[in-house]
Amino acid sequence: VDVSQIRVAVAGVGNCASSLVQGVLHHRDGGGVVDRCGMMHELIGGYRIGDVGFVAGFDVDARKVGMDLSEAIFSEPNCTSRYVESIPSLGVVVARGILEDGVDGALAEIVPVARQAPEVETEDVASILRQSAAHVLVCYLPTGARRATQAYAGAALAAGVAFVNCNPEPVAADATWRERFRAAGLPLLGDDVKSQIGATSLHRALAGWCEERGVVIDSCYQLNIGGNTDFLNMRDVGRAASKRMTKTISLSGVVPPGAKLTAGPSDFVPHLEDRKIAYIHIEGRGFLGMPFSMEVRLGVEDSPNSAGVVVDAVRIAKVATERGLAGPLDDVSTYLFKNPGRPVSDRVAREALDRFIRP
Ligand SMILES: NC(=O)c1ccc[n+]([C@@H]2O[C@H](COP(=O)([O-])OP(=O)(O)OC[C@H]3O[C@@H](n4cnc5c(N)ncnc54)[C@H](O)[C@@H]3O)[C@@H](O)[C@H]2O)c1
């Protein structure tokens, strides 16, 4: 019997899931001194990070399906760092998930799909969610896996579980899904995690600072390179289209409408592994039309950077369930995700988050 207070299921046991599981276990130290380093919020609605527990996991990679979650998170092709040396068995066997369009393009060449007949359907996943008594399903499917992502959203609905969509496929930003979650009385957070010190978050902050200082932005771009499977997958322009869109939508909120703007994944550099480099460039004009330009290079490890936000999102989803908040949480989501559907300003989002956490 899992005694965790927030029971989480993950769909997609890739690098981000690895960092999330490691982050939770790192903070579950049995009441010892809690390392606050890198935490956005120690307490949310009375819950600590260590109060999160994992009750189900879904993947389609033969190297992960059937393994305990504690081992699957370190299976190839996952390449994020191991920060937590010893992870006990979690008693959660990774189940074969709904395949749909999860493994297309470049991924199909490196992911051996665990074959299963008949194919897993939405109701099979919903049934596992019910049996495990999950409170929240976190979707970590690859970018571009739109049908698969929506199938998991359907499973969460069928099982009565809150949904946190970490990838850029539209669920929180889709009118139909928004209404379905509202009607079912379930919280919906997403889409596409705005990492803790993420490129989009930093780019927005810089653009907001330019506006505050009264200068005009004429153009900007944000180039991103990395070496994990997410970047391999996004080498395919079609698969990456949703990511380019969520970044652009998020930046459009702060970059003036007349400015030229390009932002998206730019290349796959295998030896970077889970490291990601972002180059942000802004050009504009100040007093008297003085031209200026700035360039920022941000180097991070991709997956822990997103897990630092998801540990908050799952606690918010649980607290929202307790408070009977149904449907998309647009204001709070704006702080944590790139495309919440109906974004608010950063200031309003931050205030809404503070109010949510300390009502
Ligand atoms: N900083 C970040 O890393 C970051 C930030 C924002 C958003 N995201 C998004 O989060 C998502 C996950 O990122 P990641 O780095 O963990 O990717 P990843 O490629 O490491 O993991 C994806 C996992 O999903 C599995 N999968 C594929 N199809 C599936 C299906 N149909 N059902 C179940 N599992 C399936 C894969 O086998 C793999 O284990 C991506 O869409 C990414 O763009 C990541």
Structure description:
The chain is α/β, with parallel strands linked by helices and 359 residues long. Helix content is 36%, strand content 20%. The chain contains 12 helices and 11 strands. The strands form 2 sheets. A 7-stranded parallel beta sheet has the order 3-2-1-4-5-6-11, sandwiched between helices. Strands 8-7-9-10 form a 4-stranded mixed beta sheet. α4 packs across α5. The longest helix is centred in the last third of the chain and has 21 residues. The chain is globular, with a radius of gyration of 20 Å. The two termini are 32 Å apart. The mean pLDDT is 95. The site of nicotinamide-adenine-dinucleotide has 37 residues, from α1, β2, α8 and α10.
Low-confidence stretches: none
Fraction of residues in helix = 25-40%
Radius of gyration: 20 Å
Basic shape: globular
Distance between the termini: 32 Å
Could you give the order of the helices and strands? Answer: EHEHEHHEHEHEHEHHEEEHEHH
**Main beta-sheet annotation:** 7 strands, parallel
Strand content of the residues, in percent?
15-25%
**Helix and strand composition category:** alpha/beta
Strand order of the largest sheet: 3-2-1-4-5-6-11
Overall pLDDT confidence? 95
Instruction: List all distinct small molecules, including ions and cofactors, that are bound in this structure.
Output: nicotinamide-adenine-dinucleotide
Total DSSP helices: 12
Number of strands: 11
